[in-house]
Amino acid sequence: MFEVLAALQKFSKTRPHDSAFSQDQRALSYAQLSGRVGAFSQDLADNDVIAIYAPNGLEWVIADLSVAFAGKTMVPLPTFFSESQLRHIIENAGVGRILASRETLSPAQAFGLPVTEVTIDGPTAPLDGANNHSLEAQRIIYTSGTTGAPKGVRLGDKQVCASAKGLLAASGASAEDRYLSVLPFSLLLEQIAGIALPILAGAPVSIASNAAGAALQGDTLPLMNAFTDAFEGAGATASVLVPGLLDAWIKTLTATNTTAPSSLRFVAVGGAPVNTSLAKMAWDLGVPVHEGYGLSECCSVVSVNRPGGRNEGTTGVPIPGVNVTLQGGEIVVHGDTVMAGYLGHDNNPNGVWRTGDLGEFSSKGALRILGRKDNLIVTQAGRNISPEWVEGLCETSPGVAKCVLTNVPDQGDDQGLVLIVVAPPDSAAVLQAQYAQLPDYARPDHTVIVDGADVAKYDLLTPLGDARRAHCQAFARQWLGRPDAAEALRNHA
């Protein structure tokens, strides 16, 4: 983060009174933010591994930059993780202190570690030595994953700076932008896109804390109200979303016969495939969607579509400094953004990562994601099906929030493709139009409509809406009344 801190130090002198980050009625200028980071970082000398447990807000920004300036290791504790996941992270990473905001101070203390409250008011100190390359700040990013305990991805200044600068160049960000931060700062993508990149560009950030909170709760109505107010009020030119948020926003804009603010020039969408029909609807409604692809092991951003050069149906070309090749159809990433390794495992000194994702290149060199290598379904007839392809198509149906395709073969002729659909009870009929677009071998044999209670009871999705595919397959076995259903559910409980 030394380049980000150096940029903050520069702007604190050249543009001291300009807004750097704002949230509701609060704001921090470059001089105020620089001063708080300089002072607060001095209180972190006694611990090498420091966790941040806070909702989106100015306090998170101060904490993140302070840990980096102190040359320590930062570990985000997502507020949407379960207590058992958080305790695993704390123990696994060797956390020695937790930084919390006023809202999370009490629950943070329950973990039994020293807790420091982060405030926007307090002593200030200069960021002397912000361009010191020897700070060697680190961060360990845990993803909720689709099964099992979270693993820690080790990233350093090299990876973070390379990712932020690559995205800066690809997105065309400048000091003229106004970035709207919606996603949680505990996600690496938002740490890059919502903190590091805007500081490098000298662009002000507006933190839409209400929208972020509603997004985590999955509460559509307040989420969309918060979206509308936040984008309009901030005069936002850029933001980053995940497909689920984009889908909910587009459905709401359609239902209310409204369009997105004309100020928007660049909305990156990643974290999962974006259906081409959804992207087209977004553009028609004034949302300039630019699909991207990345993963934590490669510091969040691998490729993204460029403003003025979008390749429809792809995730764009790799960002500057990142090289992508295909080996047996698998996406392999080379470059400075590749992680140092998993915590507790050997280092990854070669800067190469086999992603486990399947892809192909368009004629223009843009990357198209075909699905996960380990998610590939092979039918009894020997046909390969990427579940993401079927799911993305079916999720364009009205009222459908999420689809998961799984395979439960038996000893007979039944193909055993089961599509689990999160939607209202009478939604099965609306899927038939999408089924008709699929070849016979990829059409689901069974459709299971579930609601939020079923999703929670059987733990079918991660907190961010990704499929827990082993859980989904076990649930499908039970729904079909297979003899091994009870054992399958126990194995993946």
Description:
The protein has 493 residues and is of the alpha/beta class. The chain has 2 domains: 2-370, ANL, N-terminal domain (Rossmann fold, 3-Layer(aba) Sandwich), CATH 3.40.50.12780; 376-491, GMP Synthetase, Chain A, domain 3, CATH 3.30.300. The chain is built from 16 helices and 25 strands. Helix 15 (469-480) packs antiparallel against helix 16. The chain starts with a helix and ends with a helix. Mean pLDDT is 88; it is low at 485-493.
Q: Please report the total strand number as a whole number.
A: 25
Spans with pLDDT under 50 lasting ≥5 residues? 485-493
Give the CATH architecture of the largest domain: 3-Layer(aba) Sandwich
Return the structural class.
alpha/beta
What's the number of domains? 2
Question: What is the CA–CA distance across the termini?
Answer: 39 Å
CATH class of the largest domain: Alpha Beta
Radius of gyration: 23 Å
Q: Outline, from the CA principal axes?
A: globular
Please describe the structure with a list of short key phrases separated by commas or semicolons.
globular, alpha/beta, seven-stranded mixed sheet, nine-stranded mixed sheet, 2 domains, 493 residues, disordered C terminus, 25 strands, Rossmann fold, single chain, GMP Synthetase, Chain A, domain 3
Set out the fold topology.
Layout: H1 2-14, E1 19-23, E2 26-29, H2 30-40, E3 49-53, H3 58-69, E4 73-76, H4 83-93, E5 97-100, H5 105-109, E6 115-117, E7 138-142, E8 152-156, H6 157-171, E9 179-181, H7 188-201, E10 205-207, H8 209-217, H9 220-234, E11 238-241, H10 243-256, E12 266-269, H11 276-284, E13 289-293, E14 303-304, E15 317-318, E16 322-327, E17 330-335, E18 341-342, E19 352-361, E20 367-372, E21 377-378, E22 384-385, H12 387-394, E23 402-407, E24 417-422, H13 432-435, E25 446-450, H14 452-458, H15 469-480, H16 485-491
Parallel strand pairs: 1-10, 3-4, 3-5, 4-7, 5-6, 9-10, 9-11, 11-12, 12-13, 24-25
Antiparallel strand pairs: 1-2, 7-8, 8-18, 13-14, 14-15, 16-17, 17-19, 19-20, 21-22, 23-24
Helix pairs in contact: 1-2, 1-7, 2-3, 6-7, 8-9, 15-16
